[in-house]
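> forwarded from #structure-qc
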């Protein structure tokens, strides 16, 4: 999974961000660089600053700017067309999940995530990047 070198973790919970990072490392992404933000506003600022992130992993329910708005902004930006988006959320509402999927999110995982599910999701994103699926 060489294509995931720079990963942005967006969640208002510090514990959730650390847990996600640990899961990524457990599945072999030890050399990836992780960036962390507490909300969508911070994430957009970080994305503008960096301009080259391979994967954004975001919660949906956050203060200041939620995950829905963050996803919309990323998808609308011509500078971020190569950035994959994964949503990891405790939102159990299937309508919200369907809406976010229709927006162009690569994959949605329910909390709590485990390494096996994360690996499967990354393999699906890799297949999408290889042209099997375009957002």
């Amino acid at each position: 999974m060489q294509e995931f070198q720079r990963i942005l973790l967006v969640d208002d919970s510090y514990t959730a961000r650390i847990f996600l990072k640990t899961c990524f490392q457990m599945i072999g992404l030890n050399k990836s660089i992780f960036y962390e933000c507490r909300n969508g506003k911070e994430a957009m600022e970080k994305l503008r600053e960096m301009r080259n992130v391979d994967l954004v992993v975001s919660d949906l329910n956050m203060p200041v700017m939620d995950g829905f708005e963050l996803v919309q902004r990323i998808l609308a930006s011509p500078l971020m067309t190569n950035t994959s988006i994964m949503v990891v959320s405790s939102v159990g509402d299937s309508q919200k999940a369907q809406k976010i999927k229709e927006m162009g999110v690569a994959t949605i995982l329910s909390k709590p995530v485990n390494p096996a599910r994360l690996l499967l999701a990354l393999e699906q994103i890799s297949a999408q990047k290889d042209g099997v699926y375009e957002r």
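QC bot note: DSSP finds five helices and five strands in the chain. Strands lie at 6-10, 33-37, 55-58, 84-89, 107-110.
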